[in-house]
């Protein structure tokens, strides 16, 4: 595939100018590690959830569960190993995502909107680019002109597929690539729902409707190569609005988290997942667990693929907290979307905090 043809898969604003020499793939790693991630907590899921008959082993399980709570208090995230998700499933999703992302931009824009003959049916998979902030229907939220002027980095160097897991079984695609992708995502969603449910129980106790598996969604991201990576971010500094987020990343790297006034590279390790706390869990835990700030760097020589799972409270569930005024996730989302459109940035939980 020629480079000029391949760059047709990029949104137009991400394509190199025609008078610039073509970007070449490179095996070099230009990530400048600000602080080694060797101190990021590593949690063995199997040890946390699989006691044996002996009393000693049950006590060991409680010790490992306490490590999860400690990691979420101190870091807001941890690396999960022995999670039980087949590595073949992760590899297949990544390979199919690369094939879909390499389609021409115009094809991706229309593919999912026109994927069903029922005109009033909303596709469970939508395509977006330039912003991770989406409306409930999966469309990217465009800041107002004033917000764009106040926030020079409103354009994020990424594109993605937004996947509503609850609706994914309602449609079957005639295109073999897309239907296979749908099936893989559905299977992966079930695996992640299992993990999120168990982790939420370990971090609790919380009201059962404070996290609703029916709200679960996947975001499959591609971060295109960028000629001037120092001038933009794949995704700029933010916290997730979720209860929990579970991230799988390829071998390129770029994810960073903020800890102790420093940015730390979260290096990719095979067959591991990154679990991080979102705003909703911070509120419902009375700030015991902290929603972690993170961002994604772009790379001049390599594209990056990552897959995020996000799960939320039931839509109208009122979250009660000693630190915040009572609010529902619907209230929070409406406030975030208002801020993004008017200010160009998310103010998060501060708007709901007791004065």
TrEMBL record:
Q: Which family does it belong to?
A: Belongs to the iron/ascorbate-dependent oxidoreductase family.
Q: Which GO terms describe its biological process?
A: coumarin biosynthetic process; response to molecule of fungal origin
Q: Which GO terms describe its molecular function?
A: 2-oxoglutarate-dependent dioxygenase activity; L-ascorbic acid binding; metal ion binding
Protein's UniProt name: Fe2OG dioxygenase domain-containing protein
Membrane-spanning parts: none
What's one Pfam family the UniProt record gives for this protein?
DIOX_N
The record's annotation in InterPro entries points to: DIOX_N, IPNS-like_FE2OG_OXY, IPNS-like_sf, Iron_ascorbate_oxido_reductase, Oxoglu/Fe-dep_dioxygenase_dom
Q: Which part of the chain is the Fe2OG dioxygenase domain? A: 212-313
Which keywords does this Swiss-Prot/TrEMBL entry list? Iron, Metal-binding, Oxidoreductase, Vitamin C
């Amino acid at each position: 595939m020629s480079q000029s043809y391949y760059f047709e898969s990029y949104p137009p604003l991400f394509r190199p100018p025609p008078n610039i020499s073509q970007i070449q793939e490179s095996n070099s790693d230009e990530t400048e590690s600000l602080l080694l991630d060797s101190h990021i907590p590593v949690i063995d899921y199997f040890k946390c959830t699989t006691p044996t008959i002996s009393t000693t082993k049950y006590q060991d399980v409680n010790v490992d569960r306490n490590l999860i709570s400690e990691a979420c208090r101190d870091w807001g995230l941890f690396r999960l190993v022995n999670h039980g998700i087949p590595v073949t499933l992760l590899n297949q999703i990544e390979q199919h995502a690369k094939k879909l992302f390499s389609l021409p931009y115009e094809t991706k824009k229309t593919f999912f909107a026109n994927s069903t003959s029922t005109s009033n049916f909303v596709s469970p998979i939508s395509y977006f680019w330039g912003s991770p902030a989406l409306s409930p229907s999966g469309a990217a939220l465009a800041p107002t002109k004033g917000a764009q002027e106040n926030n020079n980095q409103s354009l994020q160097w990424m594109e993605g597929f937004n996947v509503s897991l609850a609706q994914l079984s309602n449609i079957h695609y005639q295109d073999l690539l897309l239907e296979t992708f749908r099936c893989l995502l559905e299977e992966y969603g079930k695996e992640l729902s299992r993990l999120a449910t168990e982790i939420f129980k370990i971090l609790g106790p919380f009201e059962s409707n404070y996290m609703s598996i029916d709200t679960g969604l996947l975001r499959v991201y591609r971060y295109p190569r960028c000629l001037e990576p120092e001038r933009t971010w794949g995704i700029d500094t933010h916290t997730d609005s979720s209860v929990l987020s579970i991230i799988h990343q390829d071998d390129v790297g770029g994810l960073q988290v903020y800890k102790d006034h420093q940015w730390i590279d979260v290096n990719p390790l095979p067959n591991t997942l990154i679990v991080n706390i979102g705003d909703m869990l911070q509120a419902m835990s009375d700030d015991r667990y902290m929603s972690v700030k993170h961002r994604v760097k772009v790379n001049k020589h390599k594209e990056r693929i990552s897959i995020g799972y996000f799960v939320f409270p039931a839509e109208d569930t009122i979250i009660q907290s000693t630190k915040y005024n009572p609010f529902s996730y619907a209230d929070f989302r409406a406030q975030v979307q208002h801020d993004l459109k008017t200010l160009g940035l998310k103010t998060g939980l501060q708007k709901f905090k007791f004065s």
